[in-house]
């Protein structure tokens, strides 16, 4: 496995064997599109996609999509220390897990935001109960008033 920018540099492009997996961490959809167009398998770890509204297969052809092997939630060590690592990593990893494993859409292609929100809140409570001082996923007001805004809203209509 190598970083995608090594492959995308002009000099290196011709010599990278097709059995090498490229790891995308930079330039989001542009680098994913460029790399899959050449038929390389990829692991996505771009911070552009640690948002539940994002989809790293946007604008890829069906033949390009088959080259996406999975994703990871990287946490650059220069941004954390032993005190903050768990509080930052687990909320992001759970959001990416929702996007990659369970998807954020139902069988008809509609967002499953209400169900997703509850799963993420449950996971947050699990982390805190087990001593992980996780970063808050929602405003404190929303936790105290769970049906004041979106938790009781039929979000399947949102595209």
TrEMBL record:
Gene3D superfamilies: Glycosidases. GO terms for cellular component: membrane. Pfam families: Glyco_hydro_20 (PF00728). Its EC number is 3.2.1.52. It comes from the Eukaryota. The keyword Transmembrane does not apply. Keywords: Hydrolase, Signal. It catalyses: Hydrolysis of terminal non-reducing N-acetyl-D-hexosamine residues in N-acetyl-beta-D-hexosaminides. GO terms for biological process: carbohydrate metabolic process; glycosaminoglycan metabolic process. GO terms for molecular function: beta-N-acetylglucosaminidase activity. Belongs to the glycosyl hydrolase 20 family. PANTHER family: BETA-HEXOSAMINIDASE, BETA-N-ACETYLHEXOSAMINIDASE. This is beta-N-acetylhexosaminidase. The lineage of its organism: Eukaryota, Fungi, Dikarya, Ascomycota, Pezizomycotina.
């Amino acid at each position: 496995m190598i970083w995608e920018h090594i492959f995308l540099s002009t000099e290196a492009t011709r010599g990278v064997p097709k059995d090498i997996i490229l790891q995308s961490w930079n330039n989001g959809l542009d680098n994913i599109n460029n790399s899959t167009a050449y038929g390389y398998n990829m692991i996505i770890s771009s911070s552009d996609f640690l948002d539940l509204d994002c989809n790293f297969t946007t604008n890829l052809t069906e033949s390009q999509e088959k080259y996406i092997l999975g994703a990871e939630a990287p946490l650059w060590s220069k941004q954390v220390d032993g005190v903050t690592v768990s509080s930052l990593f687990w909320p992001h990893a759970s959001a990416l897990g929702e996007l990659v494993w369970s998807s954020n859409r139902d069988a008809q292609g509609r967002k499953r935001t209400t169900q997703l929100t509850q799963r993420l809140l449950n996971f947050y409570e699990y982390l805190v109960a087990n001593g992980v001082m996780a970063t808050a996923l929602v405003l404190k007001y929303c936790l105290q008033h769970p049906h004041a805004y979106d938790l009781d809203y039929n979000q399947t209509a949102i595209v």
